[in-house]
Amino acid sequence: xxxxxxxxxxxxxxxxxxxxxEKGELLQKWSIPTDSSDHGxxxxxxxxxxxxxxxxxxQLTSADFLGIGMGSPGAVDRSEGTVTGAFNLNWRDLQPVxxxxxxxxxxxxxxxxxxxxxxLGEKWRGAGGDNDDVVFITLGTGVGGGVxxxxxxxxxxxxxxxxxxHMTVDPxxxxxxxxxxxxxxxxxxxxxxxxxxxxxxEEYAGDSTLKSLIDDGQEITSKMIFDFAKDGDAxxxxxxxxxxxxxxxxxxxxxxxxxxxxxxxxxxVSAAGEFLLxxxxxxxxxxxxxxxxxxxxxxLAELGNDAGVIGACYLVVAHAEKC
Length: 323
What we know:
alpha/beta; Nucleotidyltransferase, domain 5; five-stranded mixed β-sheet; 12 strands; about 40% helix; about 20% strand
């Protein structure tokens, strides 16, 4: 009877939900807007209302489910099933998410940090090919990630295992929101690429459309920078090479430390695709230990926005497999 799992990917603008078989086939998928008004007091009731509505719609009951998994921003206490400090949800205080979910649905509930859960999604049904040793790096407005080693997520002693975005790659570099200097996030996120472009534009004297846009005070995006580089714009090529240098360096540290089967790159910036990966690979190979060069492969993520809900489902499946 218990042959389905539900995944929830809780984000600042929307909540994505999905029902999968325990083998990982996608059966149903939907989303609702995240209403973070009034300190996010409506978020959990909205999710529960939507779950109940869809169970009715598909004529399912709690008995059909092994469990519900959720990826959430903020500080997640996995054993207590709580979330604190999820500021983009306006959840400042402790939220007893598991207690509410299990009371309202009668289905066992599992929760982890959203970046970790996305890593599980790519490991299970994405570019990771269900290998037990996979690292996922997501390049978005920040740089997040998750480390799966020996089939288990690495959380560390205080939940900061896998803070890939805060690896120092340039000790004299830009200041980070975390208070340190030269974190990967300051150069490899969408905003980081733009920072690099502005910095190099100041020193660049040659011919470049990108430079003239920056000098003119125009709004520029990471996508524009990669597009200009593909077209051979001289400044954009320099910027993308610096970006690839820092990301390749970070990937070599990850590779040398963990020797995963794959380091998967996802998030908005990864839309630059093979063009980006080729350049990162060049620097990765230069810095990686010879055996790691041969055995750890850099790959592009495959699941896009579905990584979170699929990984949330895997929280349940992985728990069931261990029992």
